[in-house]
Amino acid sequence: MHAPRGGTAMRVCLVASSRFPIAEPFQGGLEAHTATLATALTARGHRVSVFAAPGSDPTLGVEELPVRRFRPSDAARADVGAHPDTWMQDHHAYLALMLDLVSHGHERFDVVHNNSLHHLPVAMASALSLPMVTTLHTPPLGWLESAMSLAPSTTRFAAVSRHTAQAWSHVVSADVVPNGVDTDRWRPGPGGDRAVWTGRIVPEKAPHLAIAAARRAGLPIDLAGPVLDPGYFAETVAPLLGDDARLLGHLGTDELADVVGRARVALVSPQWDEPYGLVAAEAMACGTPVAAFARGALDEVVGVDAGRLARPDDVDDLARAALEAASLDRAAVRGHAVRHCSLDRMVRRYEDLYRRAGAPRPSSTVSSVAETPA
């Protein structure tokens, strides 16, 4: 990657999840995106501190959020309106961080990039003497909507897709900064005979529909990802597994990229409106064409030269899309990802957004950083 435009470095406070570590193997797309963003900003010469859950990768410049077990009293537990203990842990962790940034943030940072889903960084932004950028990774959330009413006009928002920006448009105007993938790690693969499905094994991702579609298309399928809803897995997914539908487990990025690159087609089967669809971008970067339900931002991510879309929740149509996508040229699929889903493109947009928000301070400088080829 090139050095920051104008040779100017920034000291970036990147606020991440307090619940899931930013470490391999990643729990989901948000954690993978945070690690990729931190690595790319550092490679471009910026000084990045990632505030994240305990157990996060220290090579990312992580400073652990102060997540401490909260034990309410018996009297507090008796309150019918009491929040779950984990909610209180998150609340205290982000409150401690924001109070520290209010007192000392201007001494250490030029900009705060809130990449979490928590409301407190947004609600307390007006107390900072630092500019803040918040990325919207989800459909509207009540707590976050409420916090936006307290955010100063200088707070800037980014949405990971046009779909997500539109979903939030009744509350806030957001710049569209699509997620990027590291096309060096998600490298071209040779393809193969099996389909692949990757992601969190939860009902809204619906891997059971991907298995059904693959069987109707006559394609064996491999699944890879963490089981985050054991009940759903036991009742709905496990009974469908067999020689033609294998669960590979929770894989690290390099192993996952190898599996995806050796697949004939990647199935993406959400039963919710995907804010972006990172697994589709990752598959395309490997040259593996995508067959996906046309939900959320997937029609923005999956190009006609890189995959096929199916009617939402229609297993037969997803099977049709899988067979059509499987015949696409893998070099063209990879080319689409390099042009439209590049990491460099994403980071440059965030740099511009940081500067428009008010960073950096004039005294910050940085030396050149060599470019990494796509």
Mind explaining what this structure looks like?
It is built from 14 helices and 13 strands. The protein is an alpha/beta fold and 374 residues long. The chain has two domains: 5-180 and 343-357, 3-Layer(aba) Sandwich (Rossmann fold); 195-338, Rossmann fold, CATH 3.40.50.2000. β12 (290-293), α11 (298-301) and β13 (307-310) form a beta-alpha-beta unit. α7 crosses α12 (315-325) and α10 crosses α13. Residues 362-374 have low confidence and may be disordered.
Keywords:
Rossmann fold, 2 domains, 374 residues, seven-stranded parallel beta sheet, single chain, alpha/beta, 14 helices
Overall pLDDT? 90
Radius of gyration: 21 Å
Portion in helices: 25-40%
Strand line-up in the sheet with most strands? 3-2-1-4-5-6-7
* Total domain units: 2
- Beta-strand proportion: 5-15%
Global geometry: globular
Distance between the termini: 9 Å
Q: Can you tell me the CATH class of the largest domain?
A: Alpha Beta
Assembly state here?
A: single chain
CATH topology annotation of the largest domain: Rossmann fold
The largest sheet, given as strand count, sense and whether it forms a barrel, is: 7 strands, parallel
Annotated CATH homologous superfamily of the largest domain: Glycogen Phosphorylase B
Question: Uncertain segments of ≥5 residues (pLDDT<50)?
Answer: 362-374
Give the helix/strand class: alpha/beta
- The helix/strand order is EHEEHHEHEHEHEEHEHEHEHEHEHHH
Query: Helical region count?
Result: 14
* CATH architecture field of the largest domain: 3-Layer(aba) Sandwich
Extended strand count: 13
